[in-house]
Amino acid sequence: MPRFTAEQLEAARDRLVPDVVADGLHVLFCGINPGLMTAATGHHFARPGNRFWPVLHLSGFTPRLLKPSEQGELPSYGLGITNVVARATARADELSAEEYRMGGRLLAAKVARLRPRWLAVVGVTAYRAAFDDRRAQVGPQERTIGDTRVWVLPNPSGLNAHWTAATMAEEFGRLRAASEA
């Protein structure tokens, strides 16, 4: 992965990163919003230390560890990636409550159009803010979007010390098993 200067990363602020989607996915993973490294590279979950790609593999979703630059392979496994908020920021706490709510509405419309079996939001705080569900916990949700079921996963950011890669892989694995049922 290339090294970026602080100026190059800052120049990526507010950039949009294209979704990796297709109709009829098994699971559409949904991040909070792109970080600056993701925006600079154009690859989701690109920041070194983010555990999304290792956990995706450890949980059995992919047969090998993919690099962020290989995100285009995800639809061949029935997987995709989008975000609650499209705008790139250095930190998720730069997003406003209204951005989360609008992101939730746009996400629901996208899910209704693409019709994945499962929407998997990575980050309970983002899910709560986007869907105004203050009681949501990690795991399957009662909410559906059309026929799409919803699962909240732990945030794979390296800053999320409450979850290890192993415990995250267990939760991702529960979703994988449900998505294959």
From TrEMBL:
The keyword Heme does not apply. CDD domains: UDG-F2_TDG_MUG. Residues 18-179 form the Uracil-DNA glycosylase-like domain. Its EC number is 3.2.2.28. One of its GO terms (molecular function) is pyrimidine-specific mismatch base pair DNA N-glycosylase activity. Keywords: Activator, Chromatin regulator, DNA damage, DNA repair, Glycosidase, Hydrolase, Isopeptide bond, Transcription, Transcription regulation, Ubl conjugation. SUPFAM superfamilies: Uracil-DNA glycosylase-like (SSF52141). SMART domains: UDG (SM00986), UreE_C (SM00987). The keyword DNA damage applies. One of its GO terms (biological process) is epigenetic regulation of gene expression. InterPro entries: MUG/TDG, Uracil-DNA_glycosylase-like, Uracil-DNA_glycosylase-like_sf. This is G/U mismatch-specific DNA glycosylase. The gene is mug.
